[in-house]
Design goal:
The protein has helices spanning about 30-40, 95-105, 130, 185-200, 210-215, 240-245; strands at about 5, 45-50, 55-65, 70, 75-85, 110-120, 135-140, 145-150, 160, 175-180, 205, 225-230, 230-235. The chain has about 250 residues and is α+β, with helices and mostly antiparallel strands. It has two domains: about 5-160, Gcn5-related N-acetyltransferase (GNAT) (Aminopeptidase), CATH 3.40.630; about 165-245, 3-Layer(aba) Sandwich (Glutaredoxin). The strands form three sheets. A seven-stranded mixed beta sheet has the order 1-2-3-5-6-8-7, covered by helices on one side. A four-stranded mixed beta sheet has the order 11-10-12-13, covered by helices on one side. A hairpin with a 4-residue loop joins β7 (about 135-140) and β8 (about 145-150). The longest helix is centred in the middle third of the chain and has 15 residues, at about 95-105. The termini are far apart.
């Protein structure tokens, strides 16, 4: 089936819709921050492929060596996101996007594709049950239930960096590591700042703004990671209820 997909390039990134649920006729700080982040990543072989319309139908992946995650492996792709939502579900878009990524990996002689998962599916992580239909398998785990899934093409497998399994930091305050890959990050940072100020909750916000910092993080990471009382909590973006549950611990 010949669908109308488009890949972001240096030439079209300024005008293409970036596929997430945010809708705004005016420039949105989160969307523009992601656009800037992506413009730098495209030079590194990062791929963002989307349905050629304003819809949440896209896949985003990159060479593992330059992917902003604390995962180690040679010659792999890292799959950040694969999303199909709303009325576009059930039409085969997800399969076509995954098959594109797999064909790209084979064409470039990659060793395989990997992605972040968990023993129990978590919000903001791509559907791991869908990935397993293509042959993705668990190749590494953390003590708190996160998993590294991989589809190996040559028998080799990636692994979490040892520092990603630490899951502890010295700072006991609410601490959030984040980068600008997701267009929701800006508003979630603003929400967290306002909530903590209103409730007199000390908070430390750490922007991961280079590859080295991402590779050395003390936890799993997709673009967001939360610690409290020195313990890793989640990669999920926070709302008021979730934040309140964390702060009650």
């Amino acid at each position: 089936m010949n669908r109308d997909f488009v890949n972001l390039t240096a030439e079209n990134i300024g005008s293409e819709h970036l596929c997430c649920i945010i809708r705004s006729k005016k420039p949105h700080p989160g969307v523009e921050a992601k656009r800037q982040w992506l413009s730098e990543r495209l030079k590194e072989g990062h791929v963002f492929r989307k349905l050629n319309e304003k819809a949440v139908v896209f896949i985003e992946y990159a060479p593992l060596e330059t992917a902003w995650v604390p995962i180690i492996g040679d010659n792999y792709y890292y799959l950040y996101c694969l999303w199909v939502t709303g009325s576009h579900k059930g039409k085969g878009y997800g399969r076509e996007l995954m098959e594109y990524c797999l064909a790209d990996a084979k064409a470039k002689g990659k060793s395989g594709i990997c992605m972040l998962g968990a023993k129990k599916q978590k919000s903001w992580l791509s559907d791991q049950s869908f990935a397993k239909k293509f042959g993705f398998e668990v190749v590494d785990t953390t003590e708190n239930g996160y998993e590294l899934l991989a589809l190996s093409l040559d028998g080799t497998t990636p692994r979490f960096a040892q520092n990603a399994k630490k899951l502890e930091i010295e700072n006991k305050e609410l601490t959030i590591y984040y980068d600008m890959q997701c267009p929701y990050i800006c508003q979630k940072i603003d929400f967290t700042k306002n909530y903590c100020e209103m409730n007199q909750v000390p908070v430390t916000l750490i922007q991961v703004d280079e590859l080295k910092k991402a590779k050395e993080l003390p936890c799993v990471f997709n673009n967001w990671a939360v610690f409290y009382k020195g313990k890793f909590e989640t990669v999920n973006l926070l709302d008021a209820g979730y934040l309140e549950r964390i702060l009650k611990k």
